[in-house]
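Onboarding guide, step 5: your first structure request.
Type a short instruction followed by the sequence, for example:

Predict the 3D structure of this protein.
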Amino acid sequence: MSELLLEARGLVKRFRSQSLLRGSHETRALDGVDLQIRVGEVLAVIGESGSGKTTLGKVLLRLTPATAGEIRFGGNDLRALRGKALRLKRREFQMVFQNQRANLHPKMTVRQMLDESLRLHRPKLDAEGRAEHIGGLLERVGLSAKAEQRPESLSGGERRRVGLARILATQPKLIVADEPTSGLDAAIKLQIIDLLRRLKESSMTYMLISHDLGLVRRIADRVVVMLKGRIIEEIPAERLGDPRHHPYTARLMRAAHLSEDHASQGPSVIEVGVGGEQRHGGCVYAADCPVARERGLLTRCRQERPEPVALGPGHWVACFASADPIEEEP
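The system replies with structure tokens like these:
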């Protein structure tokens, strides 16, 4: 087993909002999250929009502060770092955002943006050294012919590859990729998937945030499932679609057509529409769970927070109904 790179324990992130109808209201975007990422692995975080995936990525990389919990990166207490110590540590982890246009300077060429990143993060390189590294970065992301172009003349997929090149210029130990293929047409999407595969083959460590299970099955080693700020299942990627899942995950599998066709390579976007209020005591899926109703567990599921139960090597679910195979009817 490879070395542990990042570990989070008990992460909580609360947001407060004010409205005329509800007054002051608290949302727990993260509600007691435990997570580990090992060197050289690709960890996928899946779930519907609003499940807490992007917030988790931002909290792990100190882009937004955690309300409570512990984050250790390379053995260091990341939440304790301040000022210069935090700025230096940031070179070791980077995030690829969905909207790359907002992160690219409209008046600079691709080469100039990469040169700027190298000047900032690798100040010991001279002009010749930077030029050599820029050539290597452009070749790595397949943009050698676009070096003198500006963002407005690039496609959506090309802008995302420029964003990846800028991040690779810092030589990070960890990349968090937030929905790297969302909004792209099929051909460009395949280009990004190919690039992510090549990064994986070069032992890059990254966390992939996605609601596209087709992408996850192609890229990830391990998958965690989020719902309303909690991780409710962890499973090796190759076992997605197995008979035994958390009831919510089983619902995602059906929505993505992976349970019926385990080798499906077609579109598989998650969107199943879980409703109900966020529950801090019981299971966050209780209000929508047919399995809890069918097995007479609804009261317990509403009142008690389920602990993880092992279903196999590297596979656990937080569910009281996990003793038997969990298969919902369509």
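Each response can be followed by summary notes, for example: The longest strand covers residues 4-19.
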